[in-house]
Amino acid sequence: MKKQHARFVFLLGGLMVGLMGGHVAQAEPSSQVVWDSATRHIVGSGNAVRGAANAEVCDSCHASAPGKSLRANFPRLAGQNPFYVYKQLMDYRANTRGHGVMQNFASQLTPAQMADLAAYYADQDLPGRPARQASPEVLRLVYRGDARRLIPPCAACHGRYGEGALVHVPALAGQEVSYFTTTMQAYKSGERANDLYSRMRYIAGQLTDGEIEALARYYAGTGR
């Protein structure tokens, strides 16, 4: 099943490139991170103990225990995919994802330190699970997608329980509603553009505001 999901996402990425035509070739890369063996080795070598020693400043906004962020507009990082955390830090440093505070912070880190921080958060438990009950419309988006709008199932990339399934894809389980909706709206408007193949920008652009809000509540575990 995971191989089928990965193939589906790969094909969708190619479709996005085809739909956007020559614009992709002229655009700046959405990320400088390349998932080659060297990058995978760096992330795989991350040390949670070393990461904990450097995480005090991170935890002031992304409090790790008991797995909740300090503010609703900041993401929860507990249990997060280490490859995703590493990529975001690298994107902040390269300014392919804009945020003044995070750019300043990431610019002071080495790739090895980023990997250690990623390992520190990945070593923790996810802060929650998706809601046990949700509307048929939400569950359809999560598990089936919408072929008419070329929207793949959320679970194909983010996992059946929002735990994260593909290498650079974040876990969504227990994420703050406000952060989820803000992020999706940023993708929808193009304000955030560090998603590979423009996948999230396309998907967010196809979703209504109501669907985004409903998905946010579902993954936060708060229901319909």
In short, what is this structure?
Helices cover 54% and strands 0% of the residues. It is an all-alpha fold and 224 residues long.
Major β-sheet profile: none
Cα-based radius of gyration, to the nearest Å: 17 Å
**CATH fold group of the largest domain:** Cytochrome Bc1 Complex, Chain D, domain 2
How large is the share of residues in beta strands?
A: under 5%
The mean pLDDT is: 86
What's the number of structural domains? Answer: 2
CATH class annotation of the largest domain: Mainly Alpha
Distance between the termini: 27 Å
Q: State the fourth-level CATH superfamily of the largest domain.
A: Cytochrome c-like domain
In words, what does this structure look like?
With 224 residues, the chain is an all-alpha fold. The protein folds into 2 domains: 29-122, Cytochrome Bc1 Complex, Chain D, domain 2, CATH 1.10.760.10; 136-220, Cytochrome Bc1 Complex, Chain D, domain 2 (Orthogonal Bundle), CATH 1.10.760.10. The protein is 54% helix and 0% strand. It is built from 13 helices and no strands. The protein has helices spanning 2-20, 22-26, 37-44, 48-53, 56-59, 82-94, 100-106, 111-122, 136-143, 154-158, 177-189, 199-206, 209-220. α6 (82-94) packs across α7 (100-106), α11 (177-189) packs across α12 (199-206) and α11 packs antiparallel against α13 (209-220). The radius of gyration is 17 Å and the shape is globular. Mean pLDDT is 86; it is low at 1-11 and 13-26.
List keywords for this structure.
224 residues, mainly alpha, Cytochrome Bc1 Complex, Chain D, domain 2, 2 domains, disordered N terminus
